[in-house]
Amino acid sequence: MEAKKMIEVAVKILQKNNYKITKQRISMLEYLSHFQEQYVNVAAVDKYMHEIYPGMSHNTIYRNIKEFQEVGIIEQRTRDGIACVKYQCDFVHQHHHHFICKKCGKVQEVQMCPLDFFEKQLPGCEIDDHHFELYGICADCIRLGKN
Ligand SMILES: [Zn+2]
Ligand SMILES: [Zn+2]
Ligand SMILES: [Zn+2]
């Protein structure tokens, strides 16, 4: 999806959830739209926003990031204690998983969810959260490695 379209979709989602479309939110969306195939450190988003809007507090920036996550505009993950975000890869089938390249960091969407498989092994239990990621080397990196 091209950046312009991605921002349009996000603006619609924000409006639907009664959030004001401020220039700060638009700037954040523009920045985040560069990260649909890759995660970016939340601290980098904060740094970027604080540079353009020095009057914007870190709390506000972090709150905006959290709001974007809650309405499904961005996806978040924490690994080794570092919070990272990326633009939602899939506004249609929202629930999905990722294959992450260990070499270039590229994130690819995987639509199959293994939750049913695990639920069958845990009769009587209620699973209310799960994280599932696949790691390896992406096709592009394998191709480059062979040349
Ligand atoms: Zn995704
Ligand atoms: Zn790769
Ligand atoms: Zn799942």
Automatic annotation (TrEMBL):
Cofactor comment text: Binds 1 Mn(2+) or Fe(2+) ion per subunit. Binds 1 zinc ion per subunit.
Keywords per UniProt: Cytoplasm, DNA-binding, Iron, Metal-binding, Repressor, Transcription, Transcription regulation, Zinc
Biological processes annotated in GO: negative regulation of DNA-templated transcription; regulation of secondary metabolite biosynthetic process
Binding site for Fe cation: 95, 130
Required cofactor names: Mn(2+); Fe(2+); Zn(2+)
Cellular localization per UniProt: Cytoplasm
Signal peptide limits: none
SUPFAM superfamilies found in the cross-reference section: Winged helix' DNA-binding domain
Keyword Repressor part of the UniProt annotation: yes
A single GO cellular-component term on record: cytoplasm
Gene3D superfamilies per record: 3.30.1490.190, Winged helix-like DNA-binding domain superfamily/Winged helix DNA-binding domain
One GO molecular-function entry: DNA-binding transcription factor activity
Domain of life of the native organism: Bacteria
PANTHER family: FERRIC UPTAKE REGULATION PROTEIN (PTHR33202:SF1), ZINC UPTAKE REGULATION PROTEIN (PTHR33202)
Family to which the UniProt record says this protein belongs: Belongs to the Fur family.
Protein name, as recorded: Ferric uptake regulation protein
Organism name: Liquorilactobacillus mali KCTC 3596 = DSM 20444
